[in-house]
């Protein structure tokens, strides 16, 4: 009986552990600071053709601080039937596929699973569409809402010609530019309404469906991409990024994974063929990005922090970068020097998170590793006497994200701490002289 009970207990433990692991994985994609963030892809059929339809496809970035950088997004799907793309404006398929059966003019794309990318800036006007031609770059909703959408138009053939015969594409994929986004199934919604410039006439799409794609940092990359280091004016200790935050130096199995800054072969390695792959400076943390938080000054009513972002990647520039920092004193942020800032309040009245990003044409580009490979600013906070303290690491951030990806923080036990404020006994020179004289007199009297 005892053996049976032991086996049942062990089995139950394994099952519970498995369920815990599954539930943990499913919550990895949830961002508590941007709970409603997603990229929504909207299809609007604006007219019918003899063998199909003309549709406008629009990507809306509803993420507050996560954006898509160059080389940009790529959108894919699987046709439900044997559809083809006759023509496109504002975008293009990366592979035409086998269109040999079509004469005299072949379609733009005959693949069952087309892959669509944005056009580059400078595209001829007759090939453009509204919100196109930005090289696939999508800004975040807070940082640049005017550039948080992209559109293209396509003419689809061998498809349905009514709302009842059209079959929605399946298996949507979104690369931004790498993996990380998971797209749900297409859902038919109310047709989109279009207003004329004077707002006096309204028309609507023949049919509309939406696809929602959400981001997971754990799907995007196997290791973190940034780390945090800390320092303060009241302690000489500089807390570095945790060792192996983003990886470990392993020149035995992965030679050339990092480069020493004084290496004579640095220039030849940086100019190697695969420029899209990261090439970081050899450090103990091996992260492309390091964010340093320094508690700089303490005033009577204010305190001041210096934030420095350093790029350790020799091959990559970060354009339109941003930081998201969580700290309880952001409700009293007084001034930010040389950065833009915006408060994020994902939980209504709780204001403990701020988004920081560079000023256009000044420091919005974080250039590759080198003397200019950093940006920095200072933050001025007003003290709240009820909560302010330098004790127990309160002055340091709770969480930092760079371009939407969470950075590795040092352990709280390693935070710079206040000097020991215990009782210290000070002895004056007069006291020493008096004690010495008394000792000498006592010794002389009894000798």
Structure summarized in a few sentences:
With 447 residues, this protein is mainly beta.
Structural class: mainly beta
CATH architecture of the largest domain: Sandwich
Low-confidence runs (pLDDT<50, min 5 residues)?
A: 1-28, 422-432, 439-447
Estimate nothing, just give the exact number of structural domains.
2
Shape label: globular
Euclidean distance between termini CA atoms = 88 Å
Q: Estimate the helix proportion, in percent.
A: 10-25%
Query: What is Rg?
Result: 30 Å
Transmembrane segments: 426-446
Main location: membrane
Domain COBRA C-terminal: 225-416
Membrane topology: Lipid-anchor; GPI-anchor
Description:
By secondary structure, the protein is mostly beta strands. The protein folds into two domains: 39-219, Immunoglobulin-like, CATH 2.60.40; 221-250 and 278-414, Sandwich (Immunoglobulin-like). It has helices spanning 2-27, 217-220, 266-270, 429-445; strands spanning 39-49, 52-61, 74-78, 84-89, 91-93, 115-118, 149-157, 170-175, 181-183, 187-189, 193-195, 202-204, 207-215, 226-232, 235-239, 258-259, 280-281, 289-298, 302-311, 318-319, 322-326, 333-337, 340-344, 353-357, 365-366, 374-382, 399-402, 405-406. The strands form seven sheets. Strands 1, 2, 4, 7, 9, 10 and 13 form a seven-stranded antiparallel beta sheet that branches. Strands 15-14-18-19-26-22 form a six-stranded mixed beta sheet, with no helix packed on it. Strands 23-24-21-27-28 form a five-stranded antiparallel beta sheet, with no helix packed on it. Helix 3 links the parallel strand 16 (258-259) and strand 17 (280-281). The longest helix is centred in the N-terminal third of the chain and has 26 residues, at 2-27. The model is unreliable at 1-28, 422-432 and 439-447 (pLDDT under 50). It is found in: Cell membrane.
